[in-house]
Amino acid sequence: MKALIIDKEILVASKLKKVAEKLNPDINFASTLTSAEKAYKYLSINHPDIIFIDVNIADENILKLFQLVPSTSLFVLIAENNSHSAKSIKSTSVCYLTKPFSSDSVKTILYLKGNLDISSLDKMRGELVDFFKRRAGYKKRFMIRTGTKIRKVEIFDIAYFYQVKSTVYCVTKQNKVYPLNFKIDELSSLLNPIDFFRINKNMIVAFHAISKILPGLNSEISIELSPVEPDEVRATVDVKNNAQFIEWLNN
Fold first, then answer.
1. Is the pLDDT reported for residue 81 higher than 70?
2. 131 lies in the same domain as 173
3. Residues near 102 by Cβ (< 8 Å), separated by ≥ 6?
4. Number of domains in the chain
5. What are the DSSP calls for 2-33, one per residue?
6. The sheet that has 2-6: what strands, in order across it?
7. Which of 233, 178, 232, 181 has the alpha carbon at shortest distance from 204?
8. What angle do CA 19, 24, 29 make, to 5 degrees?
9. The pTM is what?
10. Which one of 78, 113, 136 terminates a domain?
11. Which H/E stretch holds residue 81?
12. Which whole number is the average pLDDT over 111-132?
């Protein structure tokens, strides 16, 4: 069985390979590819039986990949455990794995590859294409000028955005803070609503950044974020947004 992993995190890919090879010594992995562009070139001449692809691999080439691979190939999404992306995938027939990988979950994927019929594979592929189409129109990264340098910040690395006076900042998972040349109203339309929610007029939070939800006074919902928000802003949900926020969490 030939396999390919498309993931920017080489260490994650290495762990997946190790688990899969232990379960099936006959599986043969190609070198891990870190972008859809590289995958497009590879799949133009190679046809793996199973393709593991990280949910955050999203550039202009992503949808082209599905046209290159035979209908007998199985695509498997990789997502963070308990992430909003993982929750949205669960409502589909798409095959997926969550990090960290368990032996049982990988074993199930390998079993499915050998037992699914063409119609089931076609249905899964169609839903996967729809999944990436929904994500395609939203912001994927920010190019941020810091001094004399321009820094690239990927959208999946951002924990939340906040506004103080007229300046909007993004905060990364690593607690790095960068000013942006956007208004918070503009960001609301640029961010994928599957992953981000505007809790109040000054804050937009990513699902993965929410560590705890606490009920407050007068129906107010407070959120504990990771990393913790600065003192200038409060991570509380406007009461008028409560119902939408709860629905967003549950979807």
1. yes
2. no
3. 19
4. 2
5. EEEEE-S-HHHHHHHHHHHHHH-TT-EEPPPB
6. 28-29, 2-6, 50-54, 74-80, 95-99
7. 233
8. 70
9. 0.64
10. 136
11. none
12. 88
pLDDT in tens, 141-197: 899 988 888 999 999 899 999 999 989 999 999 999 999 988 898 888 789 888 899
- 148 and 246 share one domain: yes
Tokens of 5: 């992993």
pLDDT of 110 higher than 90: yes
Q: What does the angle CA 181 – CA 187 – CA 189 come to, to the nearest 5 degrees?
A: 140
Q: Are 131 and 151 part of one and the same domain?
A: no
What is the separation of C-alpha 80 from the centre of its chain, rounded to a whole number of angstroms?
A: 7
User: Domain of 161: which CATH number?
Assistant: 2.40.50.1020
For residue 49, the model assigns a pLDDT of 95
Q: Radius of gyration of the chain from Cα atoms? A: 20
Would you state the pLDDT for residue 194?
83
The residue type found at 160 is Y
Among 117, 136, 155, the domain-final residue is 136
Distance (Å, whole) CA 181 – CA 175: 19
Which tokens go with 75?
């695509």
Which tops the pLDDT comparison, 59 or 155?
Answer: 155
